[in-house]
Amino acid sequence: xxxxxxxxxxxxxxxxxxxxxxxxxxxxxxxxxxxxxxxxxxxxxxxxxxxxxxxxxxxxxxxxxxxxxxxxxxxxxxxxxxxxxxxxxxxxxxxxxxxxxxxxxxxxxxxxxxxxxxxxxxxxxxxxxxxxxxxxxxxxxxxxxxxxxxxxxxxxxxxxxxxxxxxxxxxxxxxxxxxxxxxxxxxxxxxxxxxxxxxxxxxxxxxxxxxxxxxxxxxxxxxxxxxxxxxxxxxxxxxxxxxxxxxxxxxxxxxxxxxxxxxxxxxxxxxxxxxxxxxxxxxxxxxxxxxxxxxxxxxxxxxxxxxxxxxxxxxxxxxxxxxxxxxxxxxxxxxxxxxxxxxxxxxxxxxxxxxxxxxxxxxxxxxxxxxxxxxxxxxxxxxxxxxxxxxxxxxxxxxxxxxxxxxxxxxxxxxxxxxxxxxxxxxxxxxxxxxxxxxxxxxxxxxxxxxxxxxxxxxxxxxxxxx
Amino acid sequence: xxxxxxxxxxxxxxxxxxxxxxxxxxxxxxxxxxxxxxxxxxxxxxxxxxxxxxxxxxxxxxxxxxxxxxxxxxxxxxxxxxxxxxxxxxxxxxxxxxxxxxxxxxxxxxxxxxxxxxxxxxxxxxxxxxxxxxxxxxxxxxxxxxxxxxxxxxxxxxxxxxxxxxxxxxxxxxxxxxxxxxxxxxxxxxxxxxxxxxxxxxxxxxx
Lengths: 467, 207
Ligand code: SF4
What we know:
Chain B: It is an enzyme of class 4 (lyase). The structure holds two protein chains of two kinds. By secondary structure, chain A is α/β, with parallel strands linked by helices. In chain A, 32% of the residues lie in helices and 17% in strands. The mean pLDDT of chain A is 96. Chain B has eight helices and seven strands; from the N terminus they run βααβαβαβαβββααα. The longest helix of chain B is centred in the last third of the chain and has 14 residues, at 184-197. The model of chain B has no long low-confidence stretch (mean pLDDT 93). Residues 63-64, 108, 110, 129, 131, 347-348, 408, 411-412, 429-430 of chain A line the site of iron/sulfur cluster.
């Protein structure tokens, strides 16, 4: 057999049938469901008199609409409450496993899946949400789908797909002090652009990637979608197997050993063909952040905001100026030292225990700068509990951060956590589009440590000066 | 999904290009939990005045076009956001067929997924069909999918192209799910094989 990539292997392993027009019926191992993109799918099943083919391969959570304040109070916004109540009715009617709002297992769907051992290596995983790519860190093929497709997976446990192209992004070397997976990913997106991965599945490889823990790999794969890719992948290795061992829904005992034996076959063969290859050196990457309203507009923290006048392409120039105006920045100004109003540490990109530890390391013994609102939103109830066991909540509260309940929170303006027009936010989330965190809000994407540094200094700051 | 064989219905003309999905259904209606019921918000900004009253000049607010099941527009129908709410809103209004010189990709696909037939015809022909669509109670067109023709009020037949597989799905009323379920034996075979090869595959059960 010709040498195959990791993507090829997972794909081949899940093809049920290939139709004459080249579309494949692809088997889906895990279907993750949340309240925003599922109601019409359940309704479709109901109208057609269908059931879920495999509810036991499905898991539902509420995350996008939930308030991250006191959970014992009823949800105020009627439409949010309606979406949550609708999901609760649907999971009951269709027998779908569900972590309710008040469960410690509740959280952002892309944090919950790996944490519970529901997302495992070699699986195909889908969810009606573009950041499903996160689960690719497990060495699984994971991608977002539309609502019709959600219904299709519910009814058939398969999806209709054409194979993607293969791309490999290799990062070699050892990241410098203060440089995290988020910085690596922002640097990659800055390098290849938001269309750099279009039509491809990106496999992340190289010594710098192998050196990352699972949380870091999830950050990387999470933002593959911001590079235009259909999915991101990291080959499973000992780090992966140790992470999976003992998780609630992971295979146990002999089953675990058998699973590992299979998972070990999941790596790209020597000589396999990639349609596109990119290589970066970890040593070249500094703490990185965005200055504009597209994830590819990145800068090292020591850098200056680019000048549209230097941009030869007319359309680009106009767009850059528009971004600067929206962001309230001047061409050529140093990005470090720009004052912030809000700091958001959370989202499916950076809300795991490792992320909170990195932020706590910076926050410890310091105070949130005056006039800055700083929020910590753990990715799940379990992350929150673990952080409390480690005393991180105390560090944050002492420093003046808000310590909140799990959910998508200020990653998108769909729940009560929102920016007001003109507010500038240092955010660990993944999208800096206009209005993403609230109408008129200004977002700088950066790592948890950099966000914490912004909180305690009141401005965008090189974290290396603090730790 | 309802079969699409022949449709003889009132046709409405919206002589505009680049009607985006936000015009078809504005973002503020996306927090709904149903795909039905969106029809009354279809073309909201054109259809209603700021005080919520109907705009009497808008074609879909006038007789006989309130009952239109065919819609004719100019280029690039359905561009913008990929929201599936756009075909849901059209369908709920009663539209089963849209005719335009060109369509945005995702909207075009989403139409088929929801039992709406999108027909590509050159602009000059669309203009003639728009003339037909302005003939009051006689604004009727007939679409015969099996024969791939649009029949004008004067009996003239306008042929159109369609992908044979998609035509088949519409004629049979098969949605993607119905189509995939024809391969159910294959899916079961796959599951049996998985059972052998990955006996460790866990199920999710929560009490
Ligand atoms: S945290 Fe943000 S990106 Fe992640 S699932 Fe929630 S809304 Fe989407």
